[in-house]
Amino acid sequence: MLKALHFSPTLFSALMVFAMLAAALVAGFILSRVFRRYATKFEKTWGELLFSLFESLPVPLLLLATLYTAIELFTLPPQWERIGSKLILALVILVLFYFPAKVLILFLRRLSQREPLLERVTEPAAFAIRALFALVAVIVVLENLGVHLTVVWTTLGVGSVAVALALQETLSNFFAGLYLLADRPINPGDYVKLDSGQEGYVVRIGWRSALLRTLSNNMIVVPNSTLSKAVITNYSMPEDRMSLVIQVNVASGTDPRRVEKILVDVAKEAARDRCDGLLPHPEPFAQFIPGFGKSTLDFSLVVQVRKFSDQYPVQSELRKRILERFQKEGIEIPFPTQSILIEKVPPTPPAGGGRKTKRK
Q: What's the whole-model pTM score?
């Protein structure tokens, strides 16, 4: 039994193949540790780049060497040897295309660390690079395997036109999403308003659509193609701070300078009291604008709030303080009134011109 085990060529070859596979895995693990150790001696980004590039290199190369050795050790029919040789060639081509793609992706990621504008398009670009290199690698493999691609190209050409027509809207949203990610007119967390009237906080920008969360905590789904064509008011750019204009009306005959001083004093007092969302700087100011109403004097109080949503509680608090101060100062807030003048209508003369005829 031992003698048969010792001299069996097939069993010996199989054991050699398994031993080489195990050796390839162990060697790949050891070399990865070595690369990791020496990568720390370089600049951090370059060390990470070298390690990421070479850590996965030993295993596929050793496995290819193992497969080649197995084909050489086993006595196979010529047909199987040709298949094995073509398989090795295909794997070599895939490996050769894999590493340039990885180099480009690693370079792009390193570049995005220096250029924040590229950070949001790095992963989509990496996916496109992988897909492109994989497609080219498959084409080269099929050509080397003797597969005629004329029919394949014709089928793909017709099919791609049909797919493009069917996915026209989806592709439009996809590329619009790439534009939004690259140009960054809006960012997650910004409060925006579209020319169509929808407004809310940007939750996320996906491949097909963007999500807006309204102040009432509802979600609005906006297709990327629509968003990229819309006129957008971004209340969070260039900064979250914004001006709040409060319209105040008083009765005609009130001293405008006195009203302006009272409005500014009320706003400054609220800022000193640390009214939530109200900023003390830039300082508030009041102006006699829009000016003369039909029966009122109209003023504008301008204050600064921390962010868009703060305008509502700040406006409520300031209006209450203004009302209390006006009541204390004796300033009248007029109610809409309308005077109706009724003219006295003369009596209508009787028919016949008003003359009475006497009958004989």
A: 0.54
